[in-house]
Amino acid sequence: MNIKKNKSICHSLFLLAFMVLFAGIMFSQEQQANVVQVVPHLYIIDSLPGSGNVAFLVTDEGVLVIDSGGSIQSGKIVIQKIKETTQKPIKYLILTHYHRDHTSGIPAFPEGITIVAHQNVTTNILGFNKKKFDENTQRLSLEVEKERAELSQLKSVNSPDISVKEEKLKKDEAQLQEYNNTKFIVPTQTYQKEKTISFGGVTVQLIYPGGAHTNGNSLVYFPQLKVMHTGDLLFNGTLPYIDFDAGSNTQNWIDWMKKLYTWDLVKIIPGHGPVSDKEVFKRQEDYLIHLRAAVATAIKEGLTLEKMQESIQLPQYKEWKNYSRLLKMNIEMVYKEMTAK
Ligand SMILES: [Zn+2]
């Protein structure tokens, strides 16, 4: 067996091992994601990697999906899981807001469906997300060029690192191609204050609460089912994210938590964390009240942002996920809200 042939067998084996590993990762991600019924006809996809909670409604007219998953791959898992549940076609995709963990799966959805969101979602997707996406594509493009140059350098000295570099380059080239083939998709239908969709006998109300988590969130309310998908107006069991740059308003957010607690709801699907009952509104409200009070006091005492980030603690929320990281960010966002002119 000559060396060249040996190398090529090695290369093929490496490739095969890589493909098996990659398929294994994909398979395990798909396996992790489960369809769970919330109430008859309405489901969530549990444990979808890097994503906010995706829900879908199945009616005689077809399927209505809420949020798309946090990557094209997660979007593909959503499509697969829906197909395993029903033969009905997807007709609607509702986006609760623009954040990428809720919208990056859009390209995986079939063309021609109706994508509905608040009007500020379009502006935010084209502003924040497209900018970030273009930056990532540019960075990867430079990286691929660098790797190509490095590879030809390795080849010129017949280095043993050639195959490792080749694999890395192949992976990055595939990723870059996916980026270059990704069309930036925006909602096809937007609304300002409220929108009602009647779909297969089920009423779906989209309600704009005003600025809260962002300036473009929708509450998705199913009055007959007494269920609401709140998007990221609720984080259950984790500290929330507050997006000042996209028009957050924590006082209005608190007011809506109070209001929603009085509604006739049996199941709440939060943006993140497990499905809950209405008590989750109280917990979110209390957290935001405590956070705002602590920041307001610190401002009154003349503390700088850095000092308040060091000193403010809300130990009653220590058990929630992302406590240390998000508390610092939350303090900054509320500080900006309270001191904005
Ligand atoms: Zn969000």
Describe the structure.
The chain is α/β, with parallel strands linked by helices and 341 residues long. Among the domains are: 29-118 and 190-272, 4-Layer Sandwich (Metallo-beta-lactamase, Chain A); 279-339. Helix content is 48%, strand content 19%. The strands form two sheets. Strands 1-2-3-4-5-6-7 form a seven-stranded mixed beta sheet. Strands 8-9-10-11-12 form a five-stranded mixed beta sheet, covered by helices on one side. Helix 7 crosses helix 9 and helix 8 runs antiparallel to helix 9 (323-339). The radius of gyration is 23 Å and the shape is globular. The model is unreliable at 1-27 (pLDDT under 50). The site of zinc ion (ZN) has 5 residues, from loops.
Features:
alpha/beta; 341 residues; Metallo-beta-lactamase, Chain A; 9 helices; binds zinc ion; 12 strands; 7-stranded mixed sheet; globular; 5-stranded mixed sheet; 48% helix
